[in-house]
Design goal:
0% strand, mainly alpha
């Protein structure tokens, strides 16, 4: 059974995913706006609702990691089994969060195993968990693994096994932006664009191929290079990128999941505390 601490971590992770969903405008990603081809507000509410379906599974992952106490192959197998059940529950609730279970699940497990860990230390613990193969995983290849094999992209598993470099990069952007007095929504958008600018997003590779991935990365870099989302030029470039990706039907979902992971790690000093 999960403890209050485990449930608190799960709530923090779902809250981070919800904050990512509420952010706007996110190029190619669903947000609260209702703009023609973009996901409708009703669908966006469904995404927020289905995010709540992650909570029991994330709490179970935290409890499992706390009970095991070490990043063993057995823990990795248990987390994988819980993750697959959680993804099934999310699908029944409306779906839409493929990838978030993996990112948030590993980070929640790491936070439960090392309660005082933050930032680099937390990512290092998650890396140790992800280093083990999932011995109970279905043998059939997933979309992500197939794309990773075809193009040599790291994919979600590679990101975790590398210690979530894009989560760390997003955290750095958030820290520097806040120090500079950047409004929080703009800081988060700049963090998302930073992830998009270099991530080998397997969802994009699947739908758009290598050329499409490079196109999205270049567009995200373009926003950053003209000053980010707080400048007029940056906002204009962001709007153009969003319109472009919506028109093409290209969605950098991997970047959205990693931003949610960064927002979870960023909130830990506040949200992971449980009253005595």
């Amino acid at each position: 059974m999960s403890s209050r601490e485990d449930e608190t971590l799960a709530r923090a992770a779902v809250a981070a995913l919800t904050r990512q969903l509420e952010l706007t405008p996110k190029p190619g990603l669903p947000d609260p706006r209702d703009l023609g081809a973009r996901v409708t507000r009703q669908d966006h509410r469904a995404l927020r609702w289905s995010a709540k379906a992650l909570m029991p599974g994330l709490a179970a992952m935290a409890a499992c990691a706390r009970r095991n106490g070490a990043p063993t192959p057995e823990l990795r197998a248990e987390l994988g089994a819980i993750g697959r059940c959680t993804e099934h529950s999310v699908q029944l609730a409306g779906g839409g969060h493929r990838g978030a279970t993996w990112v948030l699940g590993l980070l929640v497990a790491a936070a439960a195993m090392e309660p005082g860990a933050r930032g680099l230390e937390l990512a290092a613990t998650a890396k140790k968990i992800a280093a083990h193969p999932d011995r109970r995983a279905p043998r059939r290849p997933s979309r992500g693994s197939s794309v990773s094999a075809k193009y040599g992209a790291a994919g979600a598993r590679g990101e975790a096994r590398a210690g979530f470099p894009h989560v760390r990069r997003a955290l750095d952007v958030l820290s520097k932006a806040r120090t500079a007095g950047t409004p929080e929504p703009d800081a988060r958008l700049d963090a998302l664009l930073t992830v998009m600018s270099t991530l080998q997003d397997t969802e994009l590779l699947y739908t758009a191929g290598p050329h499409g991935l490079r196109h999205v990365q270049a567009g995200a870099r373009g926003v950053i290079e003209v000053g980010g989302t707080t400048t007029d030029a940056g906002r204009e470039a962001l709007t153009a990128l969003d319109t472009d990706l919506q028109g093409r039907g290209w969605s950098p979902r991997g970047s959205g999941s990693l931003l949610a992971g960064a927002l979870f790690v960023d909130a830990l000093p506040i949200t992971a505390r449980v009253p005595a």
